[in-house]
Design brief:
Elements lengths: L22 H16 L2
Length: 40
């Protein structure tokens, strides 16, 4: 088998098109870290 590179084109999404991550997501992430890693 021969391996070769294939060119791709990438256009990033704008804020209006992409995911919106708010402060609630940050709180949920911190709670998950504390719950599963630091608390017994």
């Amino acid at each position: 088998m021969r391996i070769f590179e294939v060119p791709i084109s990438y256009y990033g999404r704008t804020y209006a098109e992409g995911k919106k991550i708010g402060w609630r997501d940050g709180v949920a992430a911190i709670w998950s870290i504390l719950r599963y890693n630091l608390l017994p």
